[in-house]
Queue: 2 jobs
Job 1
Amino acid sequence: MDYQVNKKGYYGEFGGAYIPEMMVPNIEELENRYMEIIQSYDFKQEFVSLLKNYAGRPSPLYFAKRLSEKYQSNIFLKREDLNHTGSHKINNTIGQILVAKKLGKTRIIAETGAGQHGLATATVCALMGLKCIVYMGAVDVERQAPNVKKMRMLGAEVISAVSGNQTLKDATNEAMRDWINNPIDTFYIIGSVVGPHPYPDMVARFQSVISEEMRWQLDEQVGRENPDRIIACVGGGSNAAGAFYHYLDQEGVELIGVEAAGKGIDTSETAATITLGTPGVLHSSRSFLMQTDDGQIIEPYSISAGLDYPGIGPLHAHLFKTGRAKYLWATDAEVLDAALELTQLEGIIPALESAHALAVLPKIKLSPEEITVINISGRGDKDMETYLKHFGY
Amino acid sequence: MNRINKLFQNKHERILSVYFTAGYPKLDDTVPVIQELVKNGVDLIEIGMPFSDPVADGPVIQGSSLVALQNGMSVHKLFDQLKDIRQSVDIPLILMGYINPVIQFGVDAFCQKCREVGIDGLIIPDLPLAVYEEEYKAIFEVNNLHNIFLITPQTSDDRLRRIDEASSGFIYMVSSNSTTGAKEGVTDFQNVYFERISKFGLKNPRLIGFGISSAETFRNACNYAHGAIIGSAFVKALGTDLPLNEKVSQFVKTIATEV
């Protein structure tokens, strides 16, 4: 089975580049040049060096002893939360800003939900001395205030998107409109494995460092490269794509993505796109979407601002359709319990997004000899207000 | 013969095409707006199918789309509203919208419905040329529907030729690097681009759209193409409080007194 993108930009029936003519020159240029750029010696040198010396990679693979005891199995945590800026997002923004520079672009735009991708973009823009504009839904600007302040301190302009539900989808619309209006000097750093081809593939490649490291780290610690199972949360799906990437062809490794069910998959306040969605086109690619019969996009809901996206990366749609990966869901309530559990068993406060991956532990069968890796995509600093409100500390 | 071809056969200059969002300002305004536009002498009408995420549109059409959707507009509803439109309207009618609602309706069923109610062409900005040719062209042609492609100041010569080859009604020249309605007035940069395209030797006629909002911008566009398309400025006018017939007639008069 082939899980890589094909020449036309599709994963099976999903993906593609449904872009308006105004975006064609930029997307064509990127499509024609991204592989040559990211496979060049210069690029690789700089990318690897920045990941190591700037972002702090490799991120540790940590054997969670007390969590393992509780679930009577062997659970490892891939600590993306320890990266510079607090999540896996930095892997991608370092890669894309190097591509942008090679393409001679001087102005960077990005969308952000929880603010983690915006923060990671603002950070690399400061590092490279490029102008940075981050679009963020007005609701998210409100609920992720600390990240907004950090982005501004880093020199980025944060523009509040006031259309639609004022969350991630609307921020993405605004960023695309910005690119249409500024096609010459601007590069759009997309934060997840979504958008038109070649973005899903390019972002997956930049995030694939996660599973690349997992292989040698597991080999070093337990004497084999393959775990029995990998679990990661999915919104657009970039941390999951990175955690799955080098295991896609290892069919013996079970891959589990966890969607945000919000208040429950039987309510209208949910973001479980694969569980509840149907195929369609949003943000220039064909995938599963939360939509009405008329093809209007339904505004999703999740307690975590990073997962309330009404679509999902086309790679995940394909992994679901082919049965290569399983997609489960976790509700807000289950996620809060899981976050508290990890905090008190291991001394790690995870991001709300990452806590979705932890929240399915009670729902799946784990055996004592199995090895499970959970991708802790980000840390919980940005979510303290939500945690404190719910737990009352 | 398709009404679009007939129009360009009979009229070679100052063609005025007007866009509005179906179901705006009120759900049942779709047909009255068309009839008033016809009464006031416009040559072609683009009926916008509202979409929740119109990435190629600026604030005015985003706003009208949102209102239309809140009014209960849908593709099914639109076909219901248009079912007898050919009893009163002879000019070419085009549906303009995004690909997802068309896919959900079913591309075959959608195109058959267009043919049934008398639609002459489609403008779907996020349906790319390559996908159109591979998956949609045959269905469009069977139903006598022209697919109208956009070109922009950034469109390469090579691509211009390919688009010209694939076009059969007219070519929609986007006036600047912009979403709809975003830029006002005319710049030298635009005129250089208009000039380049008018001398390019395209086989299809051209209409210029995006940022055409006044008699002056309309006149300027007509110097370089067969006519122009007005969208956001008209939608803005529809949002005012006057009676519908006055809104439409006043607007058309301010744009093109000689139409």
Job 2
Amino acid sequence: MTDNKLISGLAASPGVGIAQLVRVKPVNLELSGLSGYDPGKEMVRLKKAQQRVRSQIETMKNEASNQHEEWTLKIFDSHLFLIQDPELETQIIDAINNDRVSAEFAVLVVRDVFAEMLKNTELELMQERSNDLIDVTNRIIAELTNQQPVKLSDLQKPVILVAHDLSPLETSRLNSNIVKGIITAVGSYNGHTAIMARSLGIPAVTGLGQDMDLLKNDHLVILDGMKGTVLLRPDPSELAQARKIISDLQEEKNRLKTFINKKTVTRDGTVINIGSHLSRLEDLEKANEYGAEGIGLFRTEFLYMEKSDFPDEETQFSIYKTVVEKMNPRPVIIRTMDIGGDKKLSYEESPTEDNPFLGMRGIRYSLKNPKIFRVQIRAILRATAYGNVKIMFPMVTTTAEVHQARKILIEEEENLKQQGLQVSDNYEVGIMVEVPAAALIAQEIAPIVDFFSIGTNDLIQYTMAADRVNQSVSYLYQPLHPAILRLIEMVTRAADHHGIWTGVCGDMASDLKSIPLLLGLGVKELSMSAPQIPAARELISQLEMNDLISKAAETLN
Amino acid sequence: MRKEIQVINGKGLHARPATIFAEVAGKHEGEVKVSYGNKTVNGKSLLTLLSLAVPKNGKVIVTVDGEQAETMMNNLTQVLGKNYD
């Protein structure tokens, strides 16, 4: 914008906020106190300040424990641990005693030495620790110099906070009734500020950079955490529009909330199961938060990616067991590794393929690498003893692949039982239908599996021969094209015929336009990312099965 | 007593194993020192442990003094022998 009315950053936390800006001042580190101080007195001041900061953090931790997920609380523990670091303390005391500097100056000098040291290790994880260190020591310095970092608890009227960066300690204390938004100059989508803001439900825009200078205290702005924008000097019509969005969002939120703990049932009583995807362990909390009726697609790739070696049986088993136990009696569909193609492992040499999506991936890779596959199969089989497990093979093309995979399953089950390890008697085995060939021979595959789950993303891309991320052919990526619907119908018909069930685990499963058709074609289970569940459940509650069946038949003809 | 121990963790002695190491060492009455390369640091301090930047499979020398040094050494050996990724 030429008049600098609209500035953009990263959309870090969704929602819209209207309020006056409050700039959060950083702790002033221009300290005096180079020499001539009484070590005894400074030691007392230091101890008192440390003690106060420690109890502040402990209080914050207790307050936060009600509103945050467990893992964000670990940030507080790591701060508490740093305050008590013996070397940090020893060196601060040394500086006070030997150089006769003020306590605040000693803290600043020593922490700079450590922060520099951590930065030089060039590891991202160390960087984070270095930020924690700066955060904690800033608090001690603020205590020692009577600077109030930000009295966020004193804020009375709604505000939007503006800061270079907010520390996790600061963000954690924010009250969403007062703080209507957060704007920072730095920070990414997965930075501390963004994570905390999302967990508190406060809209946020981060990474504003230089444009921060345009934000002045007390100015009224509209912050859009979905678009990642800040609108300065809004006029009455813009304000009215933003208020409308806020009330719509709130209304939708309240309405959808009522669907979180309901079962998924059509108006005429047909029960559908909506599961959540799980791509990392943290998704488990989300699944519960949004009322998932199971895990519909457990993507096991995270166990293999960003690692230095293949995960062993025990590591895998403990993760599968955690998920299965937490969900029990709800079903958990574990997809065996979908490695290969574009998902390469850093620790494995693999030949470069001209066409990875038509190459060695999914079950093809697993059957080619039985040693690696068997480790995963054993780990999953052991987890079956702890709940309701369904095993799913990805990228199946032929019946021979299913036979081979099942043979390995039977052999490993036998091995485990011989070792005296428990395996459940009633886990299910199914395949992901994403290769058009598998849909076309669904009649042949159905007798040898317990379920189908249609991976619509790849099924569409393979059927239409169109890469959906390729802009120039993305117009061909049409979920509701008759070619796709006929393939889906072949799968559900084969499933019905053989008395097994069909689910959908691609993006179509959460698409409100596709859901009526999918159910009309006979789909019984849907998997989507957890936050999408309430809206899908609400839609389904308004549908009549008879209607859906006749409409789907009409569409197909 | 002194012992050479290999760091098994996939990313070396980073935040998580170092934190656990410092926590365990912190319970010991006597001194715990860790050497890597030509640097020796206080094993009870997370900050100095991290500054060693020990990579995967790096070999550190752990020195434990005082009473029950052997038990402590065993505990610390276990910490370094685990994979935390």
